[in-house]
Design goal:
By secondary structure, the protein is an all-alpha fold. 64% of the residues lie in helices and 0% in strands. It contains 5 helices and no strands. Helix 1 packs across helix 2 (27-39).
Length: 84
């Protein structure tokens, strides 16, 4: 890990300070997460990953109607088992 120093506008620092208290983490960790999210993976890699998951369940015949699937789950004994 490398150390760096940043100059932040007062409003950005206040927002980070509030978030760090709410999440119980440091401002440094919030900045690392933001930088990792923005610059950690290339745009091309992210685009390819998103294209790979689009329509991945499209050919499933057992889930053709989401409403029917949920009704099938609800009429079983699953809820009674979970309550026990």
């Amino acid at each position: 890990m490398k150390r760096t120093q940043l100059y932040l506008d007062e409003d950005i620092w206040k927002a980070l300070h509030i978030q760090s208290r709410q999440r119980r983490t440091s401002i440094s960790e919030l900045v690392r997460m933001a930088v990792r999210d923005r610059y950690g993976a290339s745009q091309t890699n992210r685009r390819q990953a998103m294209k790979a998951i689009v329509g991945m369940w499209r050919d499933r015949e057992d889930l053709s109607d989401a409403g029917a699937y949920v009704r099938q789950l609800r009429k079983g004994k699953r809820l009674k088992r979970l309550a026990s």
